[in-house]
Amino acid sequence: MKRLLFYGVIIIQFICLCLIPIQDQLISTFGETIQLKQDNHVRLNHRYQGGETIYIDFEIHTISEENWMPTEEVAHNERIYVLLEADGEGIYHVKHASLTKPTAQAHQVVLKGKYRWHAEHEKAYYVEYGFEEVATEKIEAALNNQREPWIITIKMAPWGQQKVVEVN
Amino acid sequence: MNRTKLQREGTKWVRDGVITEAQLETLLARYTKKDPNGVIILFAILLTGLGIITFMFSEWAQVAHLSRPLVLMMVMLLLYVCGDQLYRKRSSSLGVSFIILGYIVFGTGLLHTMNIYNMTLLSAWPFIIWAIIGLLLYVVYDHKLIFMIGLIVVTVGQIYSGSSFSAFNWFIFLVLLFGFAHFVYHRSSLLFGYGFAASFIIQLIVLAVAESQAYYWPIVYILAIYIISDIISHHALKIAFKRTALIAIIIFGVNQTFYLQTAFWDQDQVERELSFIIVWALVFSIAALIKRRKKQLTEWVDLILFLPVAYVPFSYLLSNVILFVFAIVLLFIGYKTEDNHKIQFGTVTFLLSTFTAYIQFAWDEMNKSLFFLIGGVLLFGLSFILEKRRRAVVEGAKGDDV
After folding, report:
1. Which residue of B80, B122, B212 is in closest CB contact with A79?
2. Are residues A4 and A75 in the same domain?
3. Domain range holding A51?
């Protein structure tokens, strides 16, 4: 009996470790593609982290006060739903942010993020999404382009995971 | 008493003619020497485990993607198989240490793989899996080290949830409450009791912080563990829970004293919630009822530590006075009943509350070097007096035995 349990436990651990690469593959297959813009103001000083990943500042990080729905104070790290809408060129911008999940219409998507802080002078709220750290190898091509904000292509899985696939 | 102490004392007894040489030998034979290998193995696990953890979270990320989880799985499998073979054929403690290393590789590997695949985490759920695996491994091997590592995983998971997501993870808490508590109850060992009570209190403090509750809510949570210690029938658990609860509430009390002092000039800083008083009154009366029922006269004093002093004017003075009163009553009871443990506990609390009061009132006024100097001398003096009293009691107790 305990033998069986031992093998069972090992198999469970194997499955857990395997599921992560598999779900990564599934995002590529089933994910919806959206394009986001890098933040204009900070594009020249990306924060290098260790050298193998680069932190990208997205335009959707800052949410202006008029697009901010919650009326009460939001705690640091609290979950925030951000509704994005595509413009004419297919790039998604923030429509509004709220504490409850909004329903997305055509050309709209909902991202889950974590509230970070309120920037008083910019009259904006700052939200992070969890896909900011991008492997340097994906960015190499874009590193030469320092004049215009980068366009970042992201795959969104229906189960709420996202990953960066391309940076231009 | 341990063997070395018995040998030292025993030689004296033989010299004084209390017992014969042969009797001492027989007595010594009853005390087997503890296996020093156990400690070495514990440190070996600690060091190797820390090595694995730091390696996982360092710059080991240049390798191509799929190869990394594969390497992890191979290492994990190797450790588990080695551990299992050793456990069955050679030494059980060595085998278990390999199993623990495999367990650590699994958990850190899980987090690491999520990291390299840029998985967005919005709650601490990997820790739930990690903790449950720990429980299952404990079922297979029934070794206390595995259990304790599992307890550490649940606790760290909850702290991680609090610090990274500002959220209390109820699932992690339920794993503790239903998974770990089951074995704590049935094994009823002192070690498990301490571990469980500490994890319980730490997790609920995370709850208080994450939900931005007022600072005094942990009183109720710690009181809950205290009540359990009164109800539970297993002796070891009773002791472990009670001591952990008392240590926690004393640390809380010291913190509270400083907090309330800084808040003294700004009375609005401390919000006095009605809901807390209602919950507290309910829990406190349960504790008091049990005390009355069990007729534990000498333990009534424990309850004063759980009073909500924040609701009274000059609360920072009061909270320190309570620590003093507790310490003095404990010392008094200790000396009266010649309970050495109570005396020790009372002594430490007394020193702690003296020092708290000293910091409270002298920190701003005095030259810093003078502050430490006088503080040190004060503690020397106190410890000298208390130790003298304690020795008198211990000697007295020994005299009675002979």
Report:
1. B122
2. no
3. 32-167
pTM of structure: 0.80
Residues A42 and A6 in one domain: no
Phi, psi of B271 (to 5 degrees): -85, 130
Helix, strand, coil percentages in chain B from 3-state DSSP, rounded to 5: 80, 0, 20
Beta carbons within 10 angstroms of residue B136's beta carbon: 19
Please tell me whether residues A93 and A64 are part of one structural domain: yes
Of the candidates B61, B84, B212, the beta carbon closest to that of A52 is on B61
Kindly determine whether residue A112 and residue B113, on different chains, have CB atoms separated by under 8 Å.
no
Each residue's pLDDT tens digit, B336-354: 888 888 888 888 898 888 8
Same domain, A15 and A46: no
A152 and A130: one domain?
A: yes
What are the C-alpha distances in Å from B223 to residues A129, B215, B227, B258, B285?
A: 39, 15, 6, 21, 11
Number of domains in chain A: 2
Q: Tell me how far apart the alpha carbons of residues B315 and B8 are, in angstroms, rounded to a whole number.
A: 50
Same domain as A68, residue A22: no
Instruction: Count Cα atoms within 13 angstroms, Cβ side, for A120.
Output: 0
Number of residues in chain B: 402
Query: CB contacts < 8 Å between A and B, how many?
Result: 86
Task: Please check whether residues A99 and A65 belong to one and the same domain.
Answer: yes
**Per-residue DSSP letter, B301:** G
User: Strand ranges (DSSP E) for A15-148?
Assistant: 32-37, 47-49, 53-55, 62-64, 79-86, 92-98, 108-119, 124-128, 133-135
Q: List the single best residue of A10, A13, A114 to mutate versus B (max B Cβ within 10 A).
A: A13
Q: For A81-138, what is each residue's pLDDT tens digit?
A: 999 998 888 889 998 898 888 888 888 889 888 888 888 888 889 998 888 878 777 7
Minimal Cα–Cα distance from A158 to chain B, Å? 14
- CA–CA distance, B37 with B45 (Å, rounded to integer): 12
Tokens coding A159:
């189960």
CB contact under 8 A, A17 and B137: no
Name residue, tokens 């309970």. Answer: B339
> Do the bridges between strand A92-98 and strand A79-86 make them parallel or antiparallel, or are there none, so unpaired?
antiparallel
Inter-chain CB proximity A114 and B76 less than 8 Å = no
> Do A46 and A19 reside in the same domain of the chain?
no
ipTM of the complex: 0.76
| Per-domain boundaries in chain B | 1-30, 35-114, 121-212, 228-233+249-402
> Do residue A9 and residue B140 have CB atoms under 8 angstroms apart?
yes
